[in-house]
Amino acid sequence: MASDITITKADGTWVVRAGGAVLGESSNALELSEGEMPPVIYFPREDIAMAFLDRTDHSTHCPKKGDASYYSIVTKSTTLENAAWSYEAPKDDVARIKDHLAFYTSDKVAVEQL
Predict the structure, then answer these.
(1) In whole angstroms, what is the distance from residue 102 CA to residue 111 CA?
(2) Secondary structure class of 36 (helix, strand, coil)
(3) Residue 64: which domain range?
(4) Each residue of 52-101: pLDDT tens digit?
(5) pTM of the complete model
(6) Three-state DSSP string of 82-94
(7) How far apart are CA 64 and CA 112, in angstroms?
(8) How many CA atoms within 13 Å lie on the side-chain side of 56?
(9) C-beta separation of 75 from 25 below 8 A
(10) What domain count does the chain have?
């Protein structure tokens, strides 16, 4: 694995909320730590209500993880552009995050341990 990336099973149960709705809850989330950056929780796709997410044309490239695809969160009152991402074909060293989604936290999106 890339020397400064670790992936572990996240302790406990995690939830992601946006626009007053629970988008997902999982006891199978992963925690990815990379260097000095804050850890990121990755939710299994099957634990997310994908009906709230619309794939966008936005993408980014990470030399350690690969190409990320982005999703907007559609709530009753707004669309949160590119608020979630997924490495659908991650590099071998981080293959565990395949079929998982991560979310940018903000005043409109919360990722919390229950």
Answers:
(1) 9
(2) coil
(3) 5-113
(4) 999 999 999 999 999 999 999 998 889 999 999 999 999 999 999 999 99
(5) 0.95
(6) EEEEECCCCCHHH
(7) 26
(8) 19
(9) no
(10) 1
